[in-house]
Each structure stands twice: as C-alpha cells, then as structure tokens.
Write the structure tokens for this entry.
Amino acid sequence: MRTFLVSGDRDLLTTLAVGFGLLMLIQQAVTTVRAWVILYMGTTLNIQWRANLFAHLLRLPVQYFEKRHLGDVVSRFGSIDQIQRTLATSLRCTVNSGHFRFKQPALVC
C-alpha cells in the first residue's frame, strides 16, 4: 500500500497531496458558507421579528400603554431573544443529531 514511498513515486505522492489539499479547501469553503448562511438567516429573522413586534405595538391603542408599565412593554422585546435562543438550540440539536447519526448512533443532545 505504501510502496510509492519505497519506489520513489513522486507523481503519486504529489497527486495525493494535491487531492488532500483540495479536500481541505472544499471542507473549509463549505464550513464558511454554512456559517455565513446561519448568521445571515439568524440576523434577518431577528430583524423581522423585532420589526413586526414594533409595528404591532404601534397599532395598539393608547389605552394598552396606559394600563401597563414601560417594563412590561420592553420585556416583550426580551422575550424575542429567549424564543430565538430556544429555537436556535433546538435547531442546532436537530442538525447535529442528523449530521452525526451515522457516526455516533448514541449521540444525545
């Protein structure tokens, strides 16, 4: 199997080195694109949720705000963060268990 080292077959060794180098570059590119897509989608979702909540608050009558403290209204925006963290954790757990299902069948989130 490693006879190319003994026989001095530099062409095969060069081909293998280039092939493994290309595999590393492809893996890095896929990882980078995946991270960018996750970041983009998370940011877009965050902006949309906050904009929708703000638009909803603007449509509410003045009596709604008269009956509630400022902290109650502001806490609605904090609730968005908690919901997003929960969804992100669930999604990450689902993706990881699907990704590692064949490598480690006993993997639990």
